Structure formats: C-alpha cells, structure tokens
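Lab channel / #folding
Pinned by the channel admin:
"Please post every new chain as: sequence first, then the structure tokens as a reply. Keep commentary short and put observations after the output so the thread stays searchable."

First post following the new format, from NK:
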Amino acid sequence: MDPRPLNTPLMDLRPWESPELTSWRRLPMHAVDRGAGALSLDDDHWRFQLLPAPEVPPSENWRQLKVPGAWTTQDTGDLPQYTNWRMPWPDIPPHSPTANPTGVHERDVDIPADWAGRRVILHVGAATSVLIAEVNGRAVGIGKDSHLASEFDITDAVRTGEANTVRLTVVKWSDASHIEDQDHWWHGGITRPVLLYATDPLHLADVKVSAPADGRLCVEVQVRHAGGTLPAGWRVSGHLDGFGVLTPDEEYAAWCVQEDRVSDFLGEARLLATVPDVRRWSAETPELYGLDIRLHRPDGSVADTSRHRVGFRTVEIVGNDLLVNGERVFIRGVNRHDFHPLTGRTVTPEEMRADLETIKRFGFNAVRTSHYPNDPALLDLADELGLYLVDEADIECHDHAHEIADDPRYLGAFVDRVSRMVLRDKNHACVIVWSLGNESDYGANHDAAAGWLRRYDPTRPLQYEGAAKTGWSGADIASDILCPMYASLDEITAHAASGEQNKPLILCEYSHAMGNSNGTLADHWAAIETTPGLQGGFIWEFWDHGILQRLATGRPAGPFASGAYAHGVAADGYRWAYGGDFGDVPNDGAFCADGLVFPDRTPKPAMYEHREIAAPVRLTRSDPGRPPRVTNAQHFRDVSWLTAEWRLSVEDGGTRTAPAVLPDLPPGASADLPLPHGLLAELPAAGAAGGGEAWLTLQVTTRHDEPWAPRGTEVCAPQIQVRERPAPAPPTSVSVVASVVAASVAVSAHSPDVDAEGLLRHPLLTCPPALSLWRAPTDNDLLGGAADHWRALGLDRLVREPVSVDRADGRVRVRSAYPTGAGPVEHQQVFRLLNDDGLLIEETAVLPEGLTDAARVGTVFETVAGLNHLQWYGQGPWETYPDRRTGGPVGHHRARVDSLFTPYLRPQESGGRSGVRRFALLSDTGTGLGVRLDAPRQVSVTRYRAADLATASHHDELTPRPRCVVHLDAAHRGLGTASCGPDTLPRYRLGPGTYRWSWVLRPL
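Reply from TO:
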C-alpha cells in the first residue's frame, strides 16, 4: 500500500478545472490490436478509498473494489444521480463543486521478467471524468474523456520481474463534465478494462485500412521506436486471408522521398491489394477478411504484429441519398448507451453481444452510439453481426451549450474527442457516419473538429444535429446529413416535398420509447418508405436505465446481485430505480426509463412493432382471385436464409398450418406465393360452424443458425385478411345486433337482474359494467399534457348519476349521466337476456362538444376471483394499441392474466390488446365467462384498476387484486410519443360525439 498523497505538482495544476488540459503524457490514440499477450488488471481486489475532494490526501483506510466498475454502484456512499440535461451542480464552466468525490484505486502487479528491455504501456479503458495515473509513486499521465481509453508509457517507472504499485486516481466532477452532460446516470470510477501490455522498442504506432467496395485495399502503417530514431532497414508486410500477401506501395515510397516526407522518427508505409470478386460488407451480409500486419526489424525478424478484420464497403452521399455499396439503404436504427442495471455503465463483451443480437432479431440494422464512443468490443461485434454505426463523439454541453460551443478554452477538447474517436474506430466497416456529438448548440469548436475529420477521413460522411439550427436547407460545415430529433411526420414529409432538400434526412432521434409509447411508428415508416429523401432514423432508445436498488438499504444492488430480476421485473426486496430514488437532487425522475427493452434486456411490446415494420419479407394480396404477393424488402440479400409456414386463423374455428415455399427472390423483387392446395378451400362458409373472419399469416423464421439468432428464430409474421367478418343481418323486431349474437340465438323473455339504480347484478361480476373515459396516464400523457387535460375535465374521478331505469319486454334500458368539466356525458345501457344464457349489452355514450381528446370511451367491470387465464381472438399475443398494432397479428391467443400486464418502470396504462373480437376468462378448471364484441375493440384484462396504477410510482407499491379488471373500449386514444416528441396523430384521438358498442357476456 502506498500511503503517499497524490502527486503534488499535478494536483497544483488543478487538472479538473483546466479545459485547455485534455491530457498529459497520454499516448496518441491508435488502431493497433494490443490484446494478445496483454496482462489484465481487472478483478475485485483493487484497494480503494473515496476522498471528499481531490485536494484531500488519502488515509490508511482502504477497502476492496471491483475494477472495472463505477464506485457509485459498489456501496461507497457516493450514489448515482440522474439528470437529463441539467448539470448536477450550479457552478459555471469550467468549474466543479468543492465537494468533489475522488476515488483512489490502487493495486500491486508483478511485471513479467521477460518484459525487460521492452516498452511497457498502461491502458485504462475509461474513467469518469479525470484520470491521474501513477506507478510506484511516480506520475505517468493524465487523461480526460470518460468514454475513450488513455494509454501511458510507463517503461521508466516499472521494475520488471517484481511487484509494482499502480495507482489510478479518478476525479468525478471536472471541466470535462460540462461537455459530458448526456441524458443518463452520473457515475464515478473506472468503467472499462485496465491492462498492461509490452511491445518491442520498434513498434507499430498505427494502422489505417481503406477497403472500398471495389476491392482495392490500401493499408497505411505508421512505425515508431521507443528510443526516438528509427533503425535503417525496417519494413512492414501484410497478409489478407483468402487473398495472400499484400504489395508494398513503391510509388508512395518514392513520392515520400520526392516530397521530403521521410522522417527519422516516424516511419510511414503503404501496402496494397486488389481483391478479385470481393465479398462486400453490409449490415445484411457482414463479410469480413482477416488481415495481419507485421513490422520487421532490419534483420527480417518480426518486431510487432496487428490483427484486423476488414470489411469491403463504400459509403457515399449522392443527391439526397446515403448510399452503401451504391444502394440507398433504409436506416432502421436505435440509440444505445453502454448500460447495465448492476454496474451502471460497465458492460462485458458477452453482454454487448446480447445487446446487438437482440437489436438484430427485432429488425434493426443500425445503432447510434449515443452519446459517446461505445466500448471497443461493440464495434468488433457490429462488424461481425452486421450493423451500421453512427459513431458519436463524447461531446454534449447541453446545460451550457452555446457558451461552450464557441469557448476557445474548450476548442482543444472538441477536436481531441472527435479525433481520438476517429483514430480508434477508423478501420471498422460498421462505422458509416461520424457524429460530432449531441445537443451542444453549434459553434466554432464544431467546425474545427469537422475540419480535422474531413481532412483525416474523407471516406465517410459526418453529421451533427445542431448544425441545422439556422435551417434545414442551409449549407454548413459540420453535417452532411440532415439529422433532426423528434421532428413530426408532417415536418419531415413537407421538407422532402419542398424542393429545398439538399441532403439525406435521417432522424438522429425519434419515437421516444418512454413507458408505454412508440405510437405511430408504422405511420412514420409508411411515409419513409414511400417518400424520396426520407431514409429512416434512430429510435430513442434501446435501454430502460433502471438501476437495481435494494429496498432495505436504498442503495444500488451492485455488481454481485445477479439473479435478482427476470422478465423485466425486479425480485422481491428490489426495484428498478430512476432519478430521485437515491436521494439525488436535482434529478429528472423516470425520464431515464425510455427504452425499448427493460433493464434486464427483456423486450417491450414496441420491439415487436418494429420487427414487423422492418420485415425483410412483405406480403400483399390485392386480388382475392390471385395468390398472395411476396416481396423481398432487403437491400443486398436474397431470401434463401429464411423459411416460412402458413398459419390460417379463423374466428369461429381454430388455427391450421401448412408449409410455405419462398420463391427465389433477389433484393427488391416480388413474386406470387401460391397457397397449398385446399388451404383456403377448406374454410367453412361464413356463418357456418367454424366460419367467421379469417387471417392468413406467413410465419418467417431463420433457416439455419445465424450469428445473431439460432435456427427457427421468428423474423417476421406478415399477415393478410382472407375473409371478413360476416356483415350484420337486418335488424329484427327486437333489434338484436347480429354481429354479436348468432342468428340462431333468440332473445329471452326473462329480464336481466338490474337493480333500482340501474346496476347489473351478475354472479360472475363483482363490479358492474360502468362507463370509463380515463386511463392511468402513460409517461406520454403526463409529460405531453393530456393527463392534465383529463384531470381538469374530471375524467379521472367520474361520478355516475342515474337518470332512469326502464323495464319493458324483457329489456332493461338504463340512462345515466357523468358530469365533467365540459358538461355531462350521456350514457345508455340496454340489457337483454338470451336463450343461451348470454346477456346482450348495447351501450351508447355521447360526449359533449367541449370534451376533446378523451383517453378512452368504453366499459369497465370486475370479475369474481379465480379467473387466471385469458383466451382471445384478436391481435396479440403481446400488448397492442390503436397507433401501435402492426406487430400484433390477428389470431387465437392465450396467456395467464398475470402476464398480460406490462411492467413499465413507472406504473401506467398497459396490457391492452387491439382488435379483440371475442375472449374468455377461465379458471384453472376451465369455467369462467366469455365475451363476444360487436366489432374489433381495444380490450385489457389486468389485476389493477387505473387508480391503482396512477397512484404508484414503482411496482413494489402495487398489490395485485384477486379479481380481473376488464376494460372493453369502443375507442381508445393512441399512445404517441409526447414525453419527448410528437403526440399521436389526429386520427388516433377521441373527440366529442356519439359512440356505440355492444357485447355479449355469457358463463362458461
């Protein structure tokens, strides 16, 4: 243990308040592979102590800490804090608060004896936010940038063959924090791997690979020597798997001599190859070639090597189109943070693979590394699995945006962060666009970084959302792509039709996934796929950033609490924490719970919506007399990697399957897909037993194991309707709704059991059917203003006022009024018993003119206890809503009632199913109740009343009721994305007027 204080001269510099100081003695970033032979320092045996400020000297009180790992998740007393864009303290840039947690990490390491005479490098993968490195009490360097590695040459500080002490001091708050003001948790610590490696004094300093789609490979190599001067006679060689030895570029070498570009301390060489019949890389066909680069000493022996994987592909912009290998590709993207519910932002390669496999399985082909360079392992995986990346620099000065964007003190930091990202990631085929950062206004510092980037890498476009602040059609230095965030559908389509568009439009953020959200996603993609100039976007975002919290202590569960969650739900004694749950002030609450997956990577229902929207195989049928038409919607791949099966679902029948043989379809092609003989011919006649409407689904799965999915994984399930529900018969004298009651069923002469107040008494119901106009507000409802509107109208606290109860001819007509802030809502229910023990209920609700934008119009009732199973014919099996229903095929579905509810981190309206025609609620023995609806309706069955959900902030506050709470909605408001972005479209909103619906309730 080294009891000495932090290196005094370095501390006198106050590097945590010096934006001009981006590093000290840090080595240049490079793309040389240093994994082989490296000595990992990752384990849970680091000595650690947390100081209240960087000026405070360490004490003798040490504890153990896991590295990599944020100390804020390891019970150190300093807890995570969540803010969206506000800085956690009021000090203006570049200052930091006086109370500034500072973690001292220390451990001993034995340096191998055979490293003597070699160059020894300390690599720290990432540290938040200022890293001060010492070895054996000697300062070896300083680094900033919480999401890129710092490397230091420690050769002169180490003793080979014996133990050495490495001390890494991390200052949490700094001038750099002001440009790392991203929308995620604030942590402190070392969050990526720490390692040591050794090289020969003569070593590869960098390798830059250019591999366009035409197969002309160019490798630029830089060479240095630890002693400074390069020895005469060194050379480099290369070998490409499947091709052979690369050729030295003698013409380039001669040009260097001619232009006096030969240096005695920086060696430069080029290697060339032209690969015939090159296999091109794309997100659909991620073809990679292995490349070995060797550095030879003057005697020919190998001094250094670097292994790379090369993808041949070309990215360019032509007009308003972004092209990959000459093809205009749709960007079906998602924003992704490095996140884990136990460690904060430390993620293993295995966990990153699981992230990207999930992303691929749900139809995404692109990731924006919001809002910083992700862990290097993620780029390796994106190359391998096939994902386009927008690689984003670690720059966001959201709270002080315009001040910092033009502040010359931060000029070096902007250029440093962009350039180091590019230097690290330049050889990855997956990177198709560079990003200068996020939400930092637009200033001279951006232009400076863009200038460096354009000079160094002219092979890729760059983007920056803030560059369009003066207009979408203006010329600017900092963005080749128009990449707005949360623009409305009307805005983007109007711009594409304006004649003023001058670059591709790809939304850097859209369809904010907070809670029950992502409404109108299908509407967006219907426009994108049919509007020239629109090319896609990146949904915000992949993760719900819920940190697992122990309820007993109120602290993070920590890195060793695996197994304390499953299927999106925290185990008893835990909960998913969001802003404010750790006592953090200021905070932005549940705004961090805005992902497409729960904190344990369980997909939310919106993922299935996207999967179907992005389906590689499309199915249409415009002529009932012809076979369905199938289209390959991919850009580069045929459909031979897929297999399919027909699934025919009949409302009053069952589900039948038959094999489907996909035709040989190149990208973009269409063909007829004949149906198996007799599949539709066997359909019973409409109205006959087993008749009713019918839907044909093409279930498409992987034919073989894919790198991102095993054989048999469902890829999409396009569906067409092959028979509509029979049209209602003409009304009879008793006005029975034929679409609800079979023609053979007559109205009983007996009267239903309705009390004097007009309330139905039924042995299967514990709360009678009542009018419902409100839902437990979603996050979109709360932040978008709809919830306030409903409260102002009193929709959350409706009181029924009986008006009349009329009994005649076995029919009971009940009229009621529900006062609201816009006037009374008139509600009528007509009850009739049927001879088959069913009860027909016909309902009408009249919303007054002032009652605009209601949450729902429908019926709510509660059943007896013990009904644990739901079977239904409609959309499913997962949750769907009127403006998010493309991913729910119509069919016969079944589920346990307890599984129907979706556990969004903040309880809210959830669990609905769209297009339900009929359902049955059953006990474990098969008894229960059945409901048949007059038309496809929105239905939800859960254990919670809307008020239960609305008054809870976390799921540990909810107690499931033994009964089922059932909503039958004649109409239900869409979800939209108003928590951050546009609300739902007008056609998914509910206005004043008359609503009619009917249903039959019968015991089973």
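NK: The mean pLDDT is 95.
TO: also worth noting, Residues 411-425 form the longest helix (15 residues).
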